[in-house]
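Researcher: Final request for today, and then I'll write up notes for the group meeting. The sequence and the SMILES for copper (II) ion follow.
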Amino acid sequence: MASLAQNRTRTPAVTLRLAALAALALALLAILPAAFAANESYDIVMKNYSYTPDHMTWHVGDTVNLTLTNNSTDKTHEVMFGKGDLRYETDSFGAKHPHGWTTKLFDSPDQLHFMKGQKIEELMAAMPMITLQPKGGTMTFTFTVPDKKGTWSYACFEENGSHYADHNMKGTIDIVD
Ligand SMILES: [Cu+2]
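Model: Predicted protein-copper (II) ion complex:
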């Protein structure tokens, strides 16, 4: 009864202001997690012969904004996403070299949106394969994390696959709910 009595003594203006604040707080609580939790941002730096970071955790349905930068002073590096057995390509001398995986993370080039970049050696959206020149080659792209839960890899197959096969230039991604 005491609180009721207190409420009655408040002026209508104060009560209205409190109600407005409460409504605003509720609105912010509803909006903020959606604005921040739904987006993930990563800067991956490449050098001879590694990625930093070499592990990421992505959430299904999130929008990821990813910037790749090649800080090597002398080597071209790339990123390819996938898993499973290695995929091989045959060169003009008939020799086979590892180049990506048999299972691709992205099914269609439409899933990736390339935003900006420079010193790009090669860009094959269908793989996808993003190859960047040394000393600052960079590419920023966005995508929605596909509903493919599990552990995936990213790696560089430059110089006839030797960056991966001989130097273990790779990283892993866990896709979770
Ligand atoms: Cu490389």
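Model: Residues 1-5 have pLDDT under 50 and may be disordered. The longest strand covers residues 77-90.
Researcher: Thanks, that's everything.
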